[in-house]
């Protein structure tokens, strides 16, 4: 299993740099999701979680929010067949009760059509707040580490954030406990399969220790503990 999570950032700046409306950046951003999804299986990625809309993004102007929701519907409706053909299971994390009906309908349709597929699991974080997800898990009865693990999503191996920002913005706080972080200046609409390959190959060069000490050192008996 290889779980890659992406904070897709910089759509607005990408558009601004070109004198375009922010929504043009979001539209290009949706194309980047498709590129990444195509590249994922070849890189050994089994789980891909993308941050599409945070619970704090409701603070944006209504026109941008409704444009994002329309793009979401277009993406889900347009990609469903390709996902089925490529064995991609689609689901969402986050709150559903505040999504517009048309977006929820497309989401549930994509989920239904791809439910049995297992080559790659694409999770789209929508109206998502990690702190809210953790609080909801607790309200639903989680009171131990295993309990929270059952209610949340699998641990993230590699967390990518684009556009030069280096923060989590309330994304997968629990699941990133031992994630490796990879940041790039590239803005999300410019991100492609090559960037994803670079991030994954960097990840494979890292040594993850999970609090232990590196193997060779552990075996040396001449160093007192
Ligand atoms: C990421 O791009 C997409 C969403 C948050 C929906 P932004 O819209 O945050 O782009 P910048 O950060 O303003 O450039
Ligand atoms: C985080 O990006 C949310 C998504 C990528 C969907 P933001 O652009 O909203 O985050 P901040 O405000 O820069 O932290
Ligand atoms: Mg941003």
Layout of secondary structure:
Blueprint: E1 3-7, H1 11-17, H2 22-39, E2 47-54, H3 62-86, E3 88-93, H4 101-114, E4 120-128, H5 130-139, H6 145-151, E5 158-161, E6 180-183, H7 193-205, H8 215-219
Parallel strand pairs: 1-2, 1-5, 2-4, 3-4, 5-6
The structure holds 3-methylbut-3-enyl trihydrogen diphosphate (2 copies) and magnesium ion.
The site of one 3-methylbut-3-enyl trihydrogen diphosphate (IPE) has 11 residues, from helix 1.
Write a concise synopsis of the structure shown.
The protein is an alpha/beta fold and 225 residues long. It is built from eight helices and six strands, in the order βααβαβαβααββαα.
CATH superfamily: Decaprenyl diphosphate synthase-like
Q: Hetero groups bound?
A: 3-methylbut-3-enyl trihydrogen diphosphate, magnesium ion
- Strand percentage, roughly? 15-25%
Number of helices: 8
Percent helix, as a range, is 40-55%
Radius of gyration: 19 Å
The largest pleated sheet is described as: 6 strands, parallel
Walkthrough of the structure:
- With 225 residues, the chain is an alpha/beta fold.
- It has one domain (3-219): Decaprenyl diphosphate synthase-like (Undecaprenyl pyrophosphate synthetase), CATH 3.40.1180.
- It is built from eight helices and six strands; from the N terminus they run βααβαβαβααββαα.
- The chain has helices spanning 11-17, 22-39, 62-86, 101-114, 130-139, 145-151, 193-205, 215-219, and strands at 3-7, 47-54, 88-93, 120-128, 158-161, 180-183.
- It has a six-stranded parallel sheet, with helices on both faces.
- Helix 4 (101-114) links the parallel strand 3 and strand 4 (120-128).
- Helix 2 crosses helix 7.
- The longest helix is centred in the N-terminal third of the chain and has 25 residues, at 62-86.
- The radius of gyration is 19 Å and the shape is globular.
- The two termini are 34 Å apart.
- The mean pLDDT is 97.
- One 3-methylbut-3-enyl trihydrogen diphosphate is lined by residues 7-9, 51-54, 57, 165, 167, 169.
- The site of one 3-methylbut-3-enyl trihydrogen diphosphate has 11 residues, from helix 1.
């Amino acid at each position: 299993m290889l779980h890659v999570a992406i904070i897709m950032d910089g759509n607005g700046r990408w558009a601004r740099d070109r004198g375009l409306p922010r929504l043009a950046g979001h539209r290009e951003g949706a194309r980047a999701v498709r590129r990444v999804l195509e590249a994922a299986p070849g890189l050994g990625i089994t789980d891909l979680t993308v941050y599409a809309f945070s619970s704090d993004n409701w603070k944006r102007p209504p026109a941008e929010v409704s444009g994002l929701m329309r793009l979401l519907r277009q993406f889900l409706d347009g990609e469903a067949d390709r996902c089925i053909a490529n064995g991609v299971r689609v689901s969402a994390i986050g709150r559903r009760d505040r999504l517009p009906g048309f977006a929820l309908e497309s989401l549930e349709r994509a989920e239904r059509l791809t439910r049995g597929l297992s080559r790659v699991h694409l999770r789209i974080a929508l109206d998502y707040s990690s702190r809210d997800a953790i609080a909801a898990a607790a309200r639903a009865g989680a009171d131990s580490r295993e309990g929270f693990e059952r209610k949340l999503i699998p641990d993230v191996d590699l967390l990518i954030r684009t556009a030069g920002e280096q923060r989590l913005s309330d994304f997968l706080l629990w699941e990133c406990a031992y994630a490796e972080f990879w940041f790039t200046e590239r803005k999300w609409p410019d991100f492609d399969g090559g960037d994803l390959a670079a991030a994954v190959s960097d990840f494979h060069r890292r040594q993850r220790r999970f609090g232990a000490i590196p193997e060779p050192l552990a075996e040396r008996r001449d160093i007192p503990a």
